[in-house]
Design goal:
Its cofactor is Zn(2+). By secondary structure, the chain is α+β, with helices and mostly antiparallel strands. It contains 13 helices and 11 strands. The structure holds zinc ion.
C-alpha cells in the first residue's frame, strides 16, 4: 500500500506516525456524526458548541486508540525482525506498513493478534475509568465519552477479528493454514478468498442499506467492501511475487541460449528467420562469440522497408545499453527495481562480454503465472 502524500506527524516508540490526507474526510465525518446524532441523543440539552467539543475529543480518542492498535502490531512485528516503514492513519483506519512479510506462521499469528488484544485492553480500561468517573465525579459528559471509546475499541477488535484477509482475523487464518500445511502461498490464496467473500458481503450489505434509505452507511459499506477486495487481491499478488522471486537471481530465471542475430544477416532475413520464425521481438547481436549490441522492432521501424534486403544487422543495430545489460548474479528484486526505475523491459545477461541469456518482463510474468498454476493444482 502506498501513502505517497502522507504527512509525518511525530515519532512514537521508534515508529514514524503519518497522516494520509484522506484521514481528514473520515475525521470530519465522525465528528459530524457524533456532534449531530450521538451526543445529542445520549446527552440531551447541551449547546452545539459543547457537542462539537465532545465530538472532537471522542474522535481524537478514537484515532489514538487506532494508533495504539497499529503500534501493538508493529512492536510485535519488530520483535520478529520485521522493519516498519511507518504507521499511517487514513480513510479506512490505520495501517502499519511492514517492509517485508513476517518470517514464520507463528510470527504472523502473534503480530495479527497483538492489535485486537490491544483494542480489547483499551475497551476494558475505558470502561473501568468510565465506571469510576461516574461513581466519583458524576460528570455525565466525561462518562459518555469514555463509554463511547470503550464501545469503539470493542468494535475495532471485533471487526478486525473477522476471518477475512488482510484483516487481522484473516491473518490468523493464514497463519493457521501456513503452520498446518507449510505452504505460505496456498495459505495466502485461501485467506485472500475469505477477504474477497467478505468484501462482496459488505458491498451487498451496503446496497441493502441504500435501499433502506441509509445513504451514508450504505455508501460506507460499499467503499469498505471495495477496499477489502482490493487489499486481498494485492496481498495475494505480493505473496505470489515473493514466493516466485525471493532469493532467486537472474541466472535461475533467464532464457538460456537465446536466439541471436549475426551482423551479416540482412534485415529481411532477420525479420523472417529470427523475429517471425522464433517469435521474438528483439535479439542480441553477437559477432565471433562476443556480444556487441542488440536489435529490435524500434531499430527496424526506423529503416524504410524497401531497404531491408540491402541493409545488414551490422549497419543499424543498437550498441550495448548499460541499463539493459545485467550480470547473472543480480537478484530478481534488484531487476524489478531496475524495470520500475528505467522502464527497460528487455535485458541481456552478460558476463565477461559473453552473452549468457536474456530476461524480459514478459518472461518474469510468465514465471509468476507458472508458480500460480502449479500452486493452484496442489491439494492439501
Ligand atoms: Zn489490526
Amino acid at each position: 500500500m502506498m501513502f505517497s502524500n502522507a504527512i509525518k506527524l511525530f515519532r512514537l516508540g521508534g515508529f514514524d506516525i503519518k497522516l494520509d490526507p484522506s484521514w481528514f474526510l473520515i475525521a470530519g465525518l465522525i465528528t459530524w456524526t457524533l456532534s449531530t446524532q450521538y451526543f445529542p441523543l445520549t446527552l440531551p440539552g447541551q449547546t452545539m458548541a459543547a457537542y462539537v467539543t465532545l465530538a472532537v475529543i471522542a474522535m481524537l480518542g478514537f484515532f489514538a486508540s487506532l494508533l495504539l492498535h497499529e503500534i501493538a502490531h508493529s512492536v510485535v512485528a519488530r520483535r520478529y525482525g520485521v522493519r516498519i516503514k511507518g504507521i499511517t492513519l487514513f480513510l479506512f483506519g490505520g495501517v502499519a506498513e511492514l517492509e517485508s512479510e513476517v518470517p514464520t506462521a507463528k510470527a504472523e499469528l502473534w503480530v495479527a493478534l497483538a492489535g485486537p488484544a490491544m483494542s480489547v485492553c483499551l475497551a476494558v480500561v475505558f470502561w473501568t475509568v468510565s465506571w469510576l468517573s461516574e461513581l466519583t465525579l458524576g460528570a455525565p459528559a466525561l462518562t459518555i465519552v469514555l463509554v463511547y471509546l470503550a464501545m469503539i475499541n470493542m468494535i475495532i477488535a471485533v471487526f478486525n477479528m473477522v476471518p477475512a484477509f488482510p484483516l487481522d482475523g484473516g491473518r490468523v487464518l493464514r497463519a493457521y493454514l501456513w503452520n498446518r500445511h507449510g505452504d505460505v502461498l496456498r495459505a495466502t490464496r485461501i485467506a485472500a478468498q475469505s477477504g474477497t467473500v467478505f468484501g462482496y458481503a459488505l458491498m451487498i450489505l451496503g446496497v441493502l442499506a441504500l435501499f433502506q434509505g441509509a445513504v451514508t452507511a450504505g455508501l460506507w459499506y460499499i467503499l469498505i467492501g471495495f477496499f477489502v477486495l482490493a487489499a486481498a487481491k494485492s496481498a495475494f499478488q505480493n505473496q505470489l511475487m515473493q514466493s516466485t522471486f525471493e532469493g532467486k537471481t537472474v541466472r535461475a530465471l533467464m532464457i538460456r541460449d537465446p536466439v541471436i542475430a549475426s551482423p551479416e544477416l540482412t534485415l529481411s532475413a532477420f525479420v523472417n528467420q529470427v523475429m517471425l520464425a522464433e517469435r521474438v521481438s528483439f535479439a542480441p547481436v553477437v559477432a565471433d562469440g562476443v556480444l556487441i549490441g542488440q536489435i529490435d522492432k524500434d531499430v527496424l521501424s526506423a529503416i524504410d522497408r524497401d531497404n531491408w534486403t540491402s541493409t545488414r544487422v551490422g549497419d543499424v543495430f543498437a550498441g550495448l545499453d548499460v541499463a539493459a545489460t545485467i550480470p547473472p548474479d543480480m537478484p530478481i528484486d534488484a531487476l524489478l527495481k531496475r524495470i520500475a526505475e528505467t522502464g527497460t523491459r528487455k535485458f541481456l545477461v552478460v558476463q565477461d562480454h559473453k552473452l549468457l541469456g536474456v530476461v524480459t518482463l514478459a518472461n518474469l510474468i510468465g514465471h509468476l503465472h507458472d508458480t500460480d498454476q502449479s500452486n493452484r493444482r496442489k491439494v492439501w
